[in-house]
Amino acid sequence: MAQIYILLAIFLWSSLGIVVRLSGVAVHVLTFYSLVVAVVLQTPFLLYKGFRPAAGGLIRLRYPVFLGIVGTVNTLAFFYAYKTTTVANAVLTHYTAPVLVAFLAPFFLKERVTAAIIAAISIASIGLLVMLNDFSVGAGEAAGIIAGCVSGLAYAVIIIMGRLYAKEFSPFLLTYVVNITILFLLVPFVREFPVHALWSFLVMGIVHSTIAPIFYYRGLREVPANRAAVLGYLEPVCAILLSMIFLNETPGSHSLFGGALILLSGYLTIRSDPYAT
Predict the structure, then answer these.
(1) CA dihedral 219, 99, 125, 215 (to 10 degrees)
(2) pLDDT tens digit string along 152-183?
(3) CA torsion angle for 205, 100, 73, 51 (degrees, to 10)?
(4) 264 exposure class (CB count in 10 Å sphere: 0-12, 13-18, 19+)
(5) pLDDT tens, 228-271?
(6) How far apart are CA 153 and CA 138, in angstroms?
């Protein structure tokens, strides 16, 4: 069941591109106001339930606060990469995260890297490369590629930290503290309130900033970090499928073949997990 939570979170997050496209506002503005919605909705529930961190009191909240800071770096670096280099370069550098997690997990989480995980990462990486079919280093794109690599490293740290802290904090409390941290970090960059995009703030606040992360942190309580990282490859595949439905975009043969390889890697990951249900 734990991997189902991870898959549900990935599916929900994969719809983010559609909301961004249809909202017509800058990503940092969209993120900020969606977090306002999320925090407003979550605060009464937090107070009602009286969630508290584990032994150590409020001082232990520094861990999810740091997770929120890393999450901000991940988001800003990824979208800066989108802006300054090709989509292929941005996505491919961002999804170096599973490879980094595979190398870092044994040191920080004492998780064993199996042959099945290595095979799944390899197949998914090839599938992503085939799906995008456009990696290049052109003049003036170095900054974007570096930003993509930074976002990939930040994403890897998020997975590892999420795995560590998901056992010590409730998924709801972890989501709340991360959200409010990112919210405060984005305050200096927001100057307007686009009323026409109110619907997108509500959707993102409820779906992408509340339900999805709660599912994800719940899954990380039981799913090893390297498996969660491989399952993350399914996000671009789901995004393509949703764009076909809602944006009438037709994927090419490379997208279909690469997506099939990524789906295969996801299947191998789930099948190789002795705790999968």
Answers:
(1) 10
(2) 899 999 999 999 888 888 899 899 999 999 99
(3) 50
(4) middle
(5) 888 888 887 887 788 777 777 676 777 678 778 777 877 667 66
(6) 22
